[in-house]
Amino acid sequence: MSVLEIKDLHVSVETDQGTKQILHGVNLTINEGEIHAIMGPNGSGKSTLAYTIAGHPKYTVDSGSILLDGEEVTTMTVDQRARAGLFLAMQYPVEIPGVTVTNFLRTAKTAIDGESPAIRTWIKDVRESMKALRMDKAFAERNVNEGFSGGEKKRNEILQLELLKPRFAVLDETDSGLDVDALKIVSEGVNRAKENTGLGLLLITHYTRILRYITPDFVHVFVDGRIAEQGGPELADRLEDEGYDRYQSAAVAS
Amino acid sequence: MSATATLNTAMPTSEQQGIKEHTDGRFGFVPVQTRSGRFTSVQVADFAPVTGREAVWKLSPVKKFTDLTEGVLDGSVYPVESAAVPGVSVAWVDRTDPRIGAAGAPEERAAANAWSSFDRALAITISGEDAKEVTLTRADLGSGPRGAHTIIEAKPFSRAILILSNTGEARLSENVEIILGDSAHLTVVSLQEWGDTAVHLANHFATIGRDARLKHVVVSLGGSIVRVNPSVRLAGEGSDTELLGLYFADAGQHLEQQVFVNHDAPNSRSRVTYKGALQGQGARTVWIGDVLIGRNATGTDSYEQNRNLVLTEGTRADSIPNLEIETGDIKGAGHASATGRFDDEQLFYLQSRGITEDEARRLVVRGFLSEIVQQIGSPTLEDRLQAAIEAELTESTPS
Question: What is the pTM for the complete model shown?
Fold first, then answer.
């Protein structure tokens, strides 16, 4: 069984005002097949955690480690991490002019599997996943994210999640900017991917809205660069009612 | 001034008020005010020797081709390969052919030198409304300095894609005149895949008839110095032109294009899109895009853009858009220019999907240049160019 362990992770970022510490010792263990929700106010470091796991060059790991089945991830390049089985669904996916979705998906699949996918089954898989995500066939021939609406970009992220079949996926505010219909479609896609591959999920969100469609096994409250409280799905309900004020005033007091 | 008035009670002279000719050394010299107002002549003797300070030469390595600007050029006919295609005639014609000079005249000395030198002109005449494609290949121009002249005439209502393919060595200055009759639709692709030491200076002059449409594509990949300057006059009402360019400069290569679109009739449309990539020490590209919307060119719809992708240190890309508008009654006119390095976020996105950094870079460059290739409209040529770009990229990948 696969496991993703984050141990005492300290991360900083270079800003115009100098080095800024963002994560102050994060500890988190995700087993295959588990859904963990990380909830927290703006600026608490949730996205930093997501990008650090994926290996964005902007973030520096000062200490601590990220282990995938015991193997150190922090020393891997971005593409090595993806090939090892990690996936990040981005909050703001970038446009890649001149690269079609079809070409991009095939290139990524080939890179992850180490061999080109069998053409016939691959085309069928792509078509079925697109259909399930209510993506028009024409998307396949459009350039990656170019001229996509916010909702279309998020669907395209989940399409990749379904096709690339990672062992662990981090969804960074995938719910933001989605109307309720799109949110349902995207959530169904995530649930389908989990059912099919049994991957572990780290769901990063500001609101509890997406948790109505994707039920977490664990909820972690993230404040000031570390986990302030952990619990089951009931913790999300409490956050819905009370908000983050309780944690923030505590953080200020400490 | 009021303070000094007490010291000098005399009325200020006109000189003191600056009402006199500027003493900037040229005694009343007024630079050319309009792009179409530049001096032109077909006689090389009408141009002073090239110094490199002239507006048309200031970004070019003029010392490396004085044989073409100052020397005697071989104007004899040369080998041209082309397949026989119905509706396309290819012939050498005399200097007295009435089409010579119909589309334009040289604005600089190298072009005038070629014009003064050619024995006979290569004339490509296109007729017939069926779509057709023809490729003319020049592969054996030799290493001596040459002057050449080409006429491309598309008869009214004709349709064709014409590919001018250039390979091998050459030291060539040439003029290409492109004449589109009313409602003709012509694509001209000038493909520079010269050998490593080739020098090619070309001026393309086009005149577009009523409701006619010219797609003009400049693809420069090979050669030491390649300078292809297309100048298009939208002469007929409702005429339309799409000017596309794609260049990939490697170490030591100089690839230049000075584009001029002259909107000279109502309701004409132009789009200029040039994209280039640069890699290696001394890779140099120049793009100048002039658009003139004349007084009579009401209803003009125009946009020009240049994008450069810098792949390594040690390169230089000049990008200069100029827009001159003489009437306010137009649909639109815009320009854009951007020169940049790789977008790190694009690389991160691709890498986060398992794609290696080298492959991600190739994908981004391929995608960047594909935007031009995809618009050519000839599937066989598009495939060939994708392969050529691939070869450039494979050569460059740092191991």
Answer: 0.78
Q: Which helix (H) or strand (E) holds B335?
A: strand B332-340
3-class secondary structure, A247: helix
- CA-nearest residue of chain B to A85? B354
- Which residue reads 């020009």 in tokens? B304
The pLDDT tens digits for A50-89 are 999 999 999 999 999 999 999 999 999 999 999 999 999 9
Determine the residue type at B214: L
Show the domain range for B164: 33-341
Q: Which residues of B touch A98 (CB under 8 A)?
A: 366-371, 374
Phi-psi group of A177: left, alpha or beta (phi > 0 → left; psi -120 to 50 → alpha; rest → beta):
left
| Tokens coding B213 | 């449409």
B-chain CB neighbours of A90 within 8 Å are: 349, 352
3-state secondary structure of B325: strand
Q: How does pLDDT run across A131-161, given as a tens digit for each residue?
A: 999 999 999 999 999 989 999 999 999 999 9
Backbone angles phi, psi at B148, to 5 degrees: -145, 160
Read off the tokens for A75: 């020393």
For residue B222, give the amino acid letter: G
First CA to last CA distance, chain B: 70
A/B interface, count of CB pairs below 8 Å: 79
CATH number of A3-253: 3.40.50.300
Instruction: Write out pLDDT tens, residues B372-387.
Output: 998 999 999 999 999 9
User: Is residue B391 domain-shared with residue B318, that is, in the same domain?
Assistant: no
Size of chain B, expressed as the number of residues it contains: 399
The count of domains in chain B is 2
B366 with A98: Cβ contact below 8 A: yes
Mutate to test the interface with B, among A73, A81, A96 (most CBs of B within 10 A): A96
Token output for A53: 């796991």
User: Can you tell me which residue has the tokens 């999300």?
Assistant: A236
A111, amino acid identity? A
